[in-house]
Specification:
single chain; alpha+beta; 6-stranded antiparallel beta sheet; 5-stranded antiparallel beta sheet; 7 helices; about 35% helix; globular
Length: about 300
């Protein structure tokens, strides 16, 4: 009996040791240079496969940017996890997009809203608090050789609030093997997603999402009316003149940029005591533009 117990203890120790080795093989190394954060990610699955990727976050104007204040982490997920699948776009409860098992990696960026002790490693503007903030938007790029790239690549960058629903925020997909880019006005969780949905369906959904965001933003009625008018023009021209629709969207983006910081709140911070209306609207407008260009059908991806 004693020998059996000792055997179980040894087996448990071996399993814990192996788990520790797998955890040690999971690395996320973050470097900061000016307004750019770069993370090298390497995660080893239980199947012995290693998943490698790079994340680059380029800020418009950050304050207190360090690896500690950014707090970027990565984890492997199960593409068939029912809880995770419920967070993806679906039709009648059936997901209309999927997570590719070739790179099932979720990246979380959740800057802490408390005073940071590691304030000596700043490489840019800082106020001594160690609490990250930025204005307008950041560009998030995920690059991996684990996914192939093609002219009609289905891979897109999706973003979600912590434990919230994921939505497409892609603003570009370029070669190398796959580089997915998107803009954001707040931090979140990110997933590379295989999205086979038709561009027209996506465009209509993204117009609705942007319309809703403009309606809830803290704007004066005149500016809100201008933005909704331009977005209505995009919607009206969608099937008639896609070039004119893109031009109207560019006018909308230009209006948001021109009024950001004056008529439109444009600051995000880790205290979550302000709302970055400009950054959130710009993120939605930029991903809508990407879809309109895809609908236009004049540009191949990964070129």
């Amino acid at each position: 009996m004693l020998k059996t117990i000792r055997g179980w203890i040894c087996a448990l120790a071996l399993l814990l040791g192996m788990a520790g080795m797998r955890e040690a093989a999971a690395t996320v190394v973050v470097d900061i240079e000016g307004n750019v954060a770069h993370a090298q990610i390497s995660l080893q699955g239980t199947n012995g496969v290693t998943y490698d990727g790079d994340v680059t976050i380029t800020f418009d104007s950050p304050l207190n940017l360090t690896a500690e204040s950014l707090n970027l982490t990565a984890q492997l997920v199960d593409p068939n996890d029912p809880t995770l699948r419920l967070r993806l776009p679906n039709l009648l409860g059936i997901p209309s997009v999927s997570i590719d098992p070739a790179f099932p990696v979720m990246i979380t960026v959740e800057p802490p809203g408390t005073l940071q002790l590691f304030t000596s490693s700043f490489d840019g503007p800082e106020d001594g608090s160690g609490i990250l903030s930025f204005i307008n938007t950041y560009e998030f790029e995920l690059h991996t050789h684990d996914l192939p790239c093609s002219a009609d690549s289905p891979y897109r960058l999706f973003k979600a609030p912590l434990d919230g629903n994921f939505n497409d925020v892609t603003s570009a997909v370029v070669a190398g093997s796959v580089r997915m880019r998107g803009r954001g006005g707040a931090f979140s969780q990110f997933l590379p997603i295989n999205d086979p949905r038709a561009p027209l369906v996506l465009a209509l959904q993204k117009i609705l999402d942007l319309d809703t965001r403009i309606l809830v933003a803290a704007l004066d009625d005149l500016l809100r009316g201008d933005l909704l008018g331009l977005l209505g023009k995009v919607n009206a021209l969608l099937l008639l003149d896609i070039d004119a629709a893109i031009a109207a969207l560019d006018d909308l983006i230009g209006t948001i940029n021109a009024d950001a910081g004056t008529e439109i709140a444009n600051v995000w911070n880790a205290l979550h005591d302000v709302t970055n209306d400009a950054g959130e609207m710009l993120s939605l407008a930029e991903t809508l533009r990407f879809t309109l260009v895809r609908l236009q059908g004049t540009t191949d991806l990964c070129q």
